[in-house]
Every structure is written in C-alpha cells, then in structure tokens.
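Sanity check

After download, print the first record. It should look like this:
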Amino acid sequence: MLQLVLAVSAFTVAAAVYAVIGLRWWRRARLRRAVLGLVSGLELEPYHAAELRSEETGAAAAELLLGGYLGIDGEGAARLTAAGRDPCRTPPGHPLPAALLEAVRRYDPEPVSIGCIGRYDTEYLIRRSAYARERDALLPRIARIPQTPTHDRGRLLDCCGCVGIVLLVSFWCVAGVLLVLAHPHGLREWAASAVAAAGLAALGLAERADRAVRTRTACEDPLGDHARRQVHPALAALDERQRVHVRRSADDDRRWRGVAYEDHDRTDEDDDWWDAYHYRADDEDDEDRSDGKPPG
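Expected structure tokens:
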C-alpha cells in the first residue's frame, strides 16, 4: 500500500514540475520567435550597426581614408592629407566621419591614433553619444527574455518560489527514505516502487531540464547579433593592408596622442616613441631638401 501511495505522489509531483517547465519553454520560445522576427526586419543604418558593434570610429576612419582626407601608416598614426587640411573641401555628409575629421584637425600637425580620439577626445565623444541616442530612439521596443529565475520578479513570487523548492526537496528526501525502507511484496508493489523511483529520478533531473530550457531559448542580445552580421561599406572597401592599419590605429590609445592631448602619465617608453617619430620626420625633411623638394 505504501508503494502505491509513493508512486502516485511521485508521479503527480513530477508531472506538475515538468508541466511548469514545459509551460516556461513554450512561453520563452514564443517570445524568442517574436523578438527575432522583429529584429530581423530592422534595417539598421550602417554607422548605427557599427556603433552597436563598437566599430563606429574605425568605420568613420575608413571612410576618411578612402575619401583621401587622412592617411594611416603601418604604426597606426593618422595624419591629415592636403585634402583633409583644405577648409574649402566639403566634409563628409555623415556626422560621425565629419566629427572624426574635425578631431584629427585639432591634433594636426602631430599624428594621432584613432583609438586616442575615440577614447579621450571630449568633443568627438559628445557628438558620437548624441548620434547613438538619436538612432536608438528610432528603434522599436524589444522585449527582454529573462535570463535568471529571479529576473524582474516581485518579492512575493520569489518567496513562493523558495517555499516551493523547500517543499519539493523535503518531499524528495522523505519519499526516497520511505521507498528505501519499504519492502515490496508481490508484482504490484514492485511495479509501484519502480514508478515511484522513476518519479523521484525525474524530480532529481528537473533542475537540469530547466537549465536546458533556458539555454535553448536564450536571446541575450538579438539586436547586437543582428548588427554583427553586417559589415560597414567603408570597412568592406578597404584592402587588407589598409584594414590592418585602421584596426591598429583604432586599437591604439596611448602611442600617438597629438599635440592637443596633455598626458601626465606618459612613461619613458612613450617618450622614446615620440622621439623616434620626430627623428624620422627630421630625416624625411633632410632627404626632401637634398632632392630639391620642399619639406613636408
């Protein structure tokens, strides 16, 4: 008789627990499909997609490089060209490359890295943030899928969940002890014991099943995933050498800082880099003079 009671109890509790897990799976899967369908239909502006990938400054540098406004050498130093210094030339139409061009002009004639501007130049950061806020305001509201069991829930639901877990663990322990201590007699009691054992085993795997549901229905950053599938046209138009130079300049925020940036933490190693640049510039001027060319 005890085995039959345990079998019915374990089966009922396991069915209730897995019904909750199944309902959660259905709800999260439906929400995930809706979010992915909404995001896949968005047409992101190229610089907005680059901003979501944290590549907007590099994309702006690539456009300026292709437009002949600046040059970037193999060490990541960006310098204005004659066209970039020309105040009469029409600046780029997009606000981000226009802001980057103005920032490079503030550091001229010294070289500066794109990463230094993207991290330290206050005016460029203000304009970049304003552009990001403007584009983000045009996006539709995207629902968030809870990533943790207590995400955005009230205290009452949290307390009920804790009480339920305590009761479930208590039932599992008590039923397991009774099942072990009971001695079945006959085929019916053995069958009931097997059903009870299967129900308790299923309860023991419920936490793993719930974690699998959350993993398979996860949708942490759908907009970022959608943006990462796009490539900015200016970055795609670069050849391999130019792409390496732009990436090196965008990743560097210490080596080339220009005359407008006051660095109070510069080390002796940084001074050696600056001296090496000036020595190289002097050598180039001497060669130009010996060839009869104007310096610079």
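If your output differs, re-run the checksum step. Summary of this record's structure: The first strand starts at residue 70 and ends at 72.
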